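Can anyone check this?
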Amino acid sequence: MKNQVERLWLVGMFISCLVLSGCKEAPQAQMETTYEVMTLAPTDRVLLSNYSATIRGRQDIEIYPQVGGTLTKVCVTEGQRVKSGQALFIIDQVPYDAALQTALANVEAAKASLATSQLTYDSKQELYKQNVVSEFDLSTAKNSLLAAKAQLAQAKAQEVSARNNLSYTVVKSPADGVVGTLPYRVGALVSASLPEPLTTVSDNSDMYVYFSLTENQLLGLIRQYGSKDEALKQMPEIDLQLNDRSAYPQKGRIETISGVIDRNTGTVSLRAVFPNENGLLHSGGAGNVILPVQKTDALVIPQVATYEIQDKVYVFKVVDGKAQSAHVQVTRVNGGKEYIVDNGLQAGDRIVTEGVGLLREGTPIREKTTSEPVVTDNQTKEE
C-alpha cells in the first residue's frame, strides 16, 4: 500500500513538471502612444463663415391714425396680405362729416358775401364816375370786396381740411404687405399720439437680412476685390441658415455695405436681400448668414489641433521629435471647426492634430502611421 502511494505521488510530480515546463506566460505588449501629425502647406480654399443676422421686411411701416376718434371697424386680420390703398381701420366719421358740412356751408356763405361786395363795388364805381360818391366810399367798397374774397378763400381751405380729415377716418395701407399684430379693437379711442401703432404693414416680398463684419474682415474683403463697389458686384451668392438650423432654400445677394464702422462694436453693417415667394421668412426673425470666402495661400488647421489658455490659442509643433507649444493668432471659419492661421506658424511646420490636451512641453512624439501593427493582449510569441 505504501509503495502504491509513493508511485502516485511521483506520477503527480512528474505531470506537474511537464505542465510547468511546457507553459510560458505570454508577454504583455508595450503600448506606446502615437499621435497624428500634419505638415502645414499653403492651400486655396473656399471657406464658409457664419454671421449672426436679423431679418427685416423690405418695408416695415407702422400705421398711426392721422385723426382722433373711436374705432368703428377693423377691416383686416393679423397676418392678412393687403394691397396698397386697402382699408385697414375706420374711425367714427360722424363728427368729421359734420365738420365738412359746416365747411361747405361757410363756403356758400362766403360766395354770397363776395357776390354782394362785388355788386356794391361795381355800383360805387359808376357813382364815382358821376361824382355822386367820394373816392373814400369807392375805396371802402373795394376793401370790402377784397375782404369777401379772402373769406371765400379761407372757407375753401377749411373745406379742404375738413374733407381731408374725413378721408383720414379710413386708415389705408400705404404699401403692399402683410398685417402685423392688432392691439386695438372696435370701440378703442385712438389718436395720432398713440404709444404704439394701430398695426405694422410689412412688405415681405423680398426680405432684408442684416449682419456685421469686423474691420479686419472688411479690409480683407476690399483687398480681395479692389473696392467695395467691386466687392458688391463680384461677391458670390450667399446662403441663409434659419433659426431652427435648417437651410433656407433660396440664395441671396449682398446689396449694401455701410460706410461707417460702429464705434462701440468695431463692426460694419451689411445688408443682403433674399426672395420670399413662399413667405417662409418673417420680419423680426433671426438666423445666420453663410458667406463663402475665397482664401489663397492660407494655412488651415483643424480646431482639434489647438488648445486655449486665457483666451489665447496654442498648438504643439513637432520639433526634433518633441512637442513644443506655440502661440498662434487665428480666424475661426466653418463654424469654428477650422482655423486660418494669421500668425505664429509657417508653411512646412509640423503640428500635432489629436490629443493635444494630454501633451506637455517636451513630450516625445511618435507619429501614427497607417501600416503600424496592432498588438493585442491575446497574442503570444512563437518559440
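Reply from J.R.: I decoded it. The first strand starts at residue 37 and ends at 39.
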